[in-house]
Amino acid sequence: MMTEERDKIFRRCICTYGTNPQIDVAIEEMSELIKALLKWRRAGGAGLTEARVCIVDELADVRIMVRQMEILFQCEDEVEKRIDYKVRRQEERMGKSKVIRNVLQEAEHGEKE
Question: Of the four, 21, 67, 89, 101, which is 20 to 30 A from 27 by CA?
Answer without folding.
Answer: 89
